[in-house]
Amino acid sequence: MAQRDSVLHRWAPCVGMLLLSLLSYADRSVLAILSPTILGDLHMTATQYGYAVSAFSVCYMVANPVWGYFIDRKGVWITILVAVTVWSLASGAHALMYGLMGMCLARGVLGFGEGATFPAGLATVTETLPPERRSFGLGLAYSGGSLGAALAPLLITPIALRWGWRATFCMTAALGLLWVVLWIGLRSSGMYRAHVPTEREIAVAAARTSSAAGRWNRNLFATVAVYGLGAAPLAFGLYAAPLYLSRVLHVSQASLGHLLWIPPAGWETGYLVWGWVADRRHLRGAGHPSGLFAAFCAGGFVIALAPLAALSPHPVIATMVIFYLQMFVAGGFVVLSLSDGMNAQRKENSGFLAGIAISCWAGVTGVLTPVLGHFFDHHEYAKAFWVVACLPVVGVVLWKVLRTRAEVDFGDQS
Description:
The chain is an all-alpha fold. The chain has helices at 2-33, 35-42, 46-74, 76-93, 100-114, 117-128, 134-163, 165-188, 199-211, 218-230, 233-247, 253-256, 262-284, 290-300, 306-309, 315-344, 350-377, 381-413.
């Protein structure tokens, strides 16, 4: 019984973060899932929709390092409590929007609040789990995002068809406030416990502290580059895939609810599989994941085959397989980049590390989505796919240059 309680207490904080990231992506996915209906009802173009997504992304980009800083200084519990309350109210405010300005305002506040999600997840993992379990713990905590994106179409579509799209935003607001109650209960029950480091872990942390000067160092920028650009294809799967399926393959809004869980399922699988791989690499004392990053880049070019899939005998099935594989690879970029970043940074800077990395991803998304919207409005879908496929390659090249230089710098200091 004691062992069962120990396992329960060890993983309970990560499960709490899983539910948090699930809620976060369910909230942000509603607009994308219902975008064909909402854009038609509000008489908006795909380019304008891209601007609204950019409003979310810009605020999300600014908020991530801010929340990460406060998480490192004030603690995860109270910081995330405030953040979830803010974004739940913003999610409900979407039910009141009637045009571009209202959509941008609601998305912006939502993005600012949700900026605390993943810095809180990484900080929780590093605080409560031993090093050899952190990559899988990170994948578990972050997998709620992909799970939320997968479940949202199945839950949201029936509600929207029955009561209208505005009702769905009221529901997500209520779920956010329910999570706040559950989070308070987790803390009150004593199930949030910090990991007690071993002597070896203390020695490793001391060595890391002497080699990493403050928060800002080249390893940080290496992580930021490979995360921000490597995970950029997630933006396509989340925001552009529904419009592509609707406009090119003529999938109805009702049918989208039965298909849009598939790309996030690839993302979910990628988190768990590559988290497990990263922990095995840690136990073996493996070096940087250069080979895996190169393989991810190669695999990411599968998205360029989407125009050919549209010409196949079963275009919807072929396209969904491609979207699944693309998201699986992007999930690997997220876990491996942060796992590599955790190994190069101080434990007490974990919230800031996640915040600044995700901030970069949000910035890339903010630029990318209007570009994709422009290509979609002009029916230039192949160009959109090639842009999505090439961004991770740029990220890996930057990571390789920065990470190698960082090793030389640290070697010179020792």
